[in-house]
Amino acid sequence: MGTKGKEIVNLDVEKLLELLNKALADEWLAYYQYWVGSEVVKGPMRPSVEKELKEHAEEEFKHAGMLVERIIQLGGTPLLNPKEWFEKTNCDYEVPSDPHTVKLLQQNIKGEQCAIQVYHNILEFIKKGNDPITFNMIRKIMEEEVEHEQDLEDLLDDINTKREL
Ligand code: FE
Ligand code: FE
Ligand code: MG
Fold first, then answer.
1. pLDDT tens, 35-50?
2. Which listed ligand is nearest to 119 at the C-alpha?
3. How far is the CA of 6 from the centre of ligand 1 (A)?
4. How many CB atoms neighbour CB 158 within 10 A?
5. DSSP 3-state assignment of 10?
C-alpha cells in the first residue's frame, strides 16, 4: 500500500481499520437482511416495498465495496470470513421471520438508524486526525443511509395512512 498515503492520515490507523471492518460487517448483514427480506416480503404495498428493499440491498453491497477498497489502501485486511460478521457487527441482524411489510420496514429502519449512528461516530473519530479520503467516503455512505431511513419511513407512513371514505 502507499506508505505516504497511510502516514499523512495522522490517526491511529489500526483503530480506524477496526472501525472500518466493523462497518463492513454491518454492511454485509444489512445487504442480506434487505436482500432476503425483498424475496420473502408480503402484505400491503408489497411491490413498492420489495423494490425499495432490493435497491437498498444493492446500495449496501456498494458500501461494502467502498469500505474494502479503503481498508486495503490503509494497509489493512478486510474481514475474510463471514463468521466474523457476527463477531464484529455494531448493528446486528434482524431475522425477517415475520415477512409482513410493516414488520420488515420497522426492522430495516432500526438498522438504518444504527448505521447512521455508526458512521457519525466514525466521522467524529476521523475529525481528530486528517484523513479527507476516508472522511469523504464515509460522508457519502452516511448520506445514503439517511436517504434509506427516509425512504423506509415514507413507505411505513404510506401504509399507515388511512383515508376516511
Ligand atoms: Fe450501507
Ligand atoms: Fe442503508
Ligand atoms: Mg431508496
1. 999 999 999 999 999 9
2. 1
3. 24
4. 12
5. coil
Quick one: DSSP state of residue 78? -
Residue among 153, 162, 129 nearest 49 (CA): 153
Q: CATH number, domain at 151?
A: 1.20.1260.10
**Cα 7 to averaged position of ligand 1 atoms, centre (Å):** 27
pLDDT band at residue 1 using 50, 70 and 90 as cut-offs: low
What does pTM read for this prediction? 0.95
**Nearest alpha carbon to residue 112 among 48, 19, 31:** 31
Confidence of residue 5 (pLDDT cuts 50, 70, 90): confident
Q: What CA dihedral angle connects 145, 146, 149 and 151, to 10 degrees?
A: -100
* Distance, CA of 63 to CA of 28 (rounded, Å): 9
Q: Give me the domain span that covers residue 120.
A: 3-164
Judge contact between 123 and 139, C-beta under 8 A: yes
**pLDDT tens, residue by residue, 109-120:** 999 999 999 999
CA of 64 to the centre of ligand 1 (A): 7
Looking at the structure of the chain, the number of domains it has is: 1
